[in-house]
Automatic annotation (TrEMBL):
Cleavable signal peptide: 1-25
Pfam families, A to Z: PDGLE
Protein name: Membrane protein
Keywords: Cell membrane, Membrane, Signal, Transmembrane, Transmembrane helix
Keyword Cell membrane recorded: yes
Lineage of producing organism: Bacteria, Bacillati, Bacillota, Clostridia, Thermoanaerobacterales
Transmembrane segments: 64-85
Amino acid sequence: MKNKILIGLGTALLLALLLSPFASANPDGLDRVLKDFGLEERSKTILVSPAADYVFPGIKNEKLATGIAGVFGTLLTFGVAWFIGKKLVSR
């Protein structure tokens, strides 16, 4: 079971690293709604993202920065799912 999880995680990380740089440059759904209704200037940042606009800060190469942001997001998602799974199983 553990081996399958590691293979799945490894595959997801590889896909995130290699495919993230080719994601659409168009705004996502929420950004598009704000733009369509002219609310962009009224919106404000509540939390600061460590990888804003899906780009990891401090890396000059944009494609590499986007790939690393994809890996970061995949690891974060995996970590949260793992934590929730452990908590549910322990009940």
